[in-house]
Amino acid sequence: MEKKAIEEKVTALLSQYSYDQDRDDYIDIIDFVKKQGFSVGNALLSESEDGFLAIRPSSIIKGNSDKIIGVNVNRSLELKRFIIAHEFAHSVLHYGSGQVFLHRENKKGKGEEENDADYFAAALLMPRDSFKRVYQRLKAENLPENMIYLKLAAIYKVPSESVLRRISEIDM
Questions:
Q1: C-beta atoms surrounding 142 within 10 Å
Q2: pLDDT tens digit string along 45-85?
Q3: Model confidence over 115-152: pLDDT tens digits?
């Protein structure tokens, strides 16, 4: 999927959530996905698995479903936040309404769908305009680049690798 289309989907969802990219930085991903109808919890998973998404449409009430995102209990807070956003991305990008859907995230190779979900997760946790605004503010403080990366990771509560990838993906 085109990155521009993913950014547009994320921007629309954030707008519905009342996130203001000119004012807000950090997004409470658990609150966000709960408002989208998901339950979120820690799960005892093998070391090779990061998380999962399960959606079961209700046969009783049209439009209702059981939606669960589970994250490996042994991951860091920052990685758990990214996993939650990544699994939510699959619900937006790859879920066919009315179907049972199960997705398990593991550390084996990444295909196009996984890369799209990663990009979506980064865009959700580090919204483009907000991220650029904060990056420019930190840059104006004449901080060394590695300090800027660490501060961005702390502000957005994401893994530092995600910050580096976001910077390269949005050409900053």
A1: 8
A2: 999 899 999 888 765 455 556 899 999 999 999 999 999 99
A3: 999 999 999 999 999 999 999 999 999 999 999 999 99
> Which pair of structure tokens corresponds to residue 58?
């209700």
Cα–Cα distance between 44 and 103 in angstroms, integer? Answer: 16
**Which residue type does 39 have?**
S
Give the relative orientation of helices 145-156 and 128-140 as an angle to the nearest 10 degrees: 140
Question: Domain span at residue 87?
Answer: 3-169
Using CB atoms within 10 Å of the CB of residue 18, give its burial: 0 to 12 exposed, 13 to 18 middle, 19+ buried.
Answer: exposed
Task: Find the Cα–Cα–Cα–Cα dihedral 63, 55, 10, 172, rounded to 10°.
Answer: 180
- Structural domain tally of the chain? 1
Sign of the C-alpha dihedral computed for residues 165, 3, 9 and 103 taken in this order: negative
For the entire predicted model, the pTM comes to 0.91
Would you say the C-alpha torsion 163, 164, 167, 172 has a positive or negative sign?
A: positive
Give the pair of three-digit tokens for residue 35. 């408002």
Distances (CA, A) of 90 to 21, 84, 105, 123, 141: 23, 10, 10, 14, 37
Amino acid identity for residue 71 in this structure: V
Dmax (CA) for the chain in angstroms is 59
